[in-house]
Amino acid sequence: MRIDAHQHYWQIDRGDYGWITPSLPIIYRDLLPRDLAPHRIKHELDGSIVVQAAPTYDETDYLLSLADESPSILGVVGWLDLFDQDHRSHYNRFKRNPKFVGFRIMIQDMRDPYRILEPAFVKALRGYVEEGVPIDLLLLSDQLEPTIQLLKLVPNIHAVIDHMAKPRIRAGEVEPWLSFMQEVASFPNMYCKLSGMVTEADHGSWKPENFTLYIRHILNLFGTERVMFGSDWPVCLLAGSYDQVVEVLTRALPENWSETQLRGLFGENAMDFYHLR
């Protein structure tokens, strides 16, 4: 099965998406399964994992209702606020839907990323880790240090780093991102999504070769069984088309990759991670 392991849908008038404004006209519009369908069909994708794009419980409810109507949505990664005393009741409600496959922690949006090390947060997270819940981690490269400290406190976490932790591709920087990611990869249950790259480069002048070094580093660190393709559509449209996102990744892959490795990257690993089998 071929899967896009990271994309979004939204309906603007719901009011969940404060970061999507008229200043971003290419994405300031409703973007739904019918809009992704031509790209999914062209690239022979059987379905996708839809990831929350707003820090609201209502948006997760909306995505799950959308998933009920859309066979191409194989799973929904929702949102939970582990600082909220009622997070468990929301989780229990979400998991009644069989397409709810996990939740995302938006470290990127925290003014102080070290809050994730607070005892109450760690305790809440450990509860989900004990249940084996898949967790997405959204963070910037300069937030990797507290993230690694969190992994040391919860070493059995079954989680995936979204967008390679957003290295500074525009500036061409590799360190300290690479050293931090090497430490992340040392935790055996940590995965990484090869996604969200074009928006970290210069939107108007990037070239496919700008991403090769970063992709190869991730493949070397995480191996071929802990990486996933994600388009980050429609956010990617700010810097490139769906076709270009696929091309960036495929051009960077080693020439000697086997069909088995390709199947893993483009679907099988996502099935394992999100327990879709």
Name a few traits of the molecule.
single chain; 277 residues; alpha/beta; 8-stranded parallel β-sheet; 9 helices; 8 strands; 36% helix; 14% strand
Q: Could you walk me through the main structural features you see in this protein, from its secondary elements to its overall organization?
A:
By secondary structure, this protein is an alpha/beta fold. It is about 35% helix and about 15% strand. It has nine helices and eight strands. The protein has an eight-stranded parallel beta sheet with strand order 1-2-3-4-5-6-7-8. The longest helix has 15 residues. The model has no long low-confidence stretch (mean pLDDT about 95).
From the spread of the alpha carbons, the general shape counts as globular
Ends apart, CA distance between termini: 10 Å
The share of residues in extended strands comes to 5-15%
Strands of the widest sheet, in order across it, are 1-2-3-4-5-6-7-8
Task: Write the element-wise H/E pattern from the N-terminal end onward.
Answer: EHEHEHEHEHEHEHEHH
Number of helices: 9
Low-confidence stretches: none
> What's the alpha carbon Rg, rounded to whole Å?
17 Å
Structural class: alpha/beta
Total beta strand runs: 8
Report the helical percentage.
25-40%
Average predicted local confidence, pLDDT? 97
Quick one: biggest sheet? 8 strands, parallel
